[in-house]
Design goal:
The protein is built from 15 helices and 6 strands. With 389 residues, it is of the alpha/beta class.
């Protein structure tokens, strides 16, 4: 009863958090679209048109586009439950509203309204976004290198602005460093002395090195996650959406027939066989690779929110350990097990299974009933289930 009450409490929470993420996504898209439209606008026609200069409106359009892209990154983090994404979203939503006002366009009014409405939804669901972004030492060093190169180039270029005739402000220096370090090199700012060219080369070399290392260390884990999905693992986003679902532990002769009779969108398999996991994934089944008897994989598939669990491998000992672990994590979970050996039926019940079936015994009884003239196998199956075998 306690678990069922907890499930009823969690479902509205999940709906609220998904609504918050969805509204934030819409705000991000609107910010990009309205920003692009207002960048090229020749006139302003919104309610603040009389008080907002045209240059400010166009600048707000440009920055609004950038804010929209930044918010899309935050949306990605929100969908994965990161606290830092929640914090950035709380900061960016008021910014998009202000930018919408500054753009002073009728097209920006929905952006302003939705930004204001989305902020309370995000704030009220703070507890849901509790995951930390764990960066290792190499990743932190890569980020520090990028920041350091940009600071080195900006300060150095501004200090040597006599060597760069086109550099008059810190923004010019920052711009030169960014296009040089990223190897874009528009050529609109160039050094006129040998010393200036040497400095430019140092910015180029350190920038290319830092960007290259950062791409490998920061994007590497994302690529590994995509490969893991391709090899049969569900993504964290998919796992977070699991609710009132069926969990099938292990892979055996009965796994695919069981899954064929379950809703594919509401079931997930936990198996430690990576090759089988990939095969199941190729057939459209959701899979998590891991030992079914360990707590970590069961927690990842949210066993506390599951509707039922099925243990049906060819190893009764493995099934028993898996059942014990699942029962400990969710005492009220309905657990059904298939015993390979008839002698293990009682052992699996003692492990915590609510119902234990022996496929060989079940098949034998159905065959005998059919031979005796019973043409109603469903009724026979119901009788066997009532016996508890």
């Amino acid at each position: 009863m306690a678990a069922e009450s907890e499930k009823r409490h969690e479902r509205p929470t999940l709906l609220r958090t998904r609504a918050a993420v969805l509204s934030t996504t819409v705000v991000a898209v609107l910010s990009v679209v309205t920003g692009l439209v207002n960048i090229g606008a020749t006139t302003i026609s919104g309610p603040l048109a009389t008080v907002v200069p045209e240059s400010v409106a166009r600048t707000a359009g440009f920055t609004g586009t950038m804010t929209g892209f930044a918010m899309l990154v935050s949306v990605y983090g929100l969908r994965r439950g990161y606290r830092v994404a929640w914090s950035s979203t709380v900061v960016l939503l008021p910014v998009t509203a202000l930018q919408g006002l500054a753009q002073s366009s009728v097209l920006s009014l929905p952006l302003v309204a939705l930004s204001v409405l989305s902020l309370p939804a995000v704030l009220l669901n703070r507890r849901y976004f509790d995951r930390r972004v764990d960066l290792n030492t190499t990743q932190l060093a890569s980020l520090a290198a990028i920041v350091g190169v940009q600071a080195y180039g900006t300060i150095g270029t501004y200090a040597l602005r006599d060597e760069f005739p086109q550099v008059n402000t810190v923004l010019d220096a920052f711009y030169f460093t960014l296009v040089t370090a990223s190897t874009v090199g528009y050529g609109d700012i160039t050094a006129t002395t040998q010393f200036g060219r040497l400095f430019s080369m140092s910015v180029l070399l350190t920038g290319v090195a830092s960007f290259g290392v950062a791409l490998g260390t920061l994007l590497g884990p994302l690529i590994e996650a995509r490969l893991a999905t391709a090899l049969g693992n569900m993504s964290d986003k998919q796992l977070d959406l699991l609710d009132d679902h069926y969990i099938v532990l292990g892979y055996g002769e009965l796994t695919e027939p069981i899954l064929e009779n379950l809703d594919r969108d509401a079931s997930v398999v936990v198996t430690r066989d990576t090759e089988k996991a990939k095969q199941l994934r190729d057939h459209g089944f959701e899979v998590v690779t891991g030992n079914p008897s360990d707590e970590e994989p069961l927690q990842r598939v949210h066993v506390e929110r599951a509707k039922a669990l099925i243990a049906a491998t060819n190893d009764d000992a493995q099934d028993a350990l898996s059942i014990l672990t699942a029962r400990e994590l969710n005492p009220d979970l309905r657990i059904v097990a298939a015993a390979t050996d008839r002698e293990n039926v009682r052992k699996l019940r003692r492990a915590g299974a609510d119902v234990v079936l022996s496929p060989s015994v079940l098949g034998g009884r159905l065959l005998v009933e059919s031979a005796l003239g019973n043409d109603d196998p469903e009724r026979t199956l119901g009788q066997i289930l009532d016996l508890g075998d």
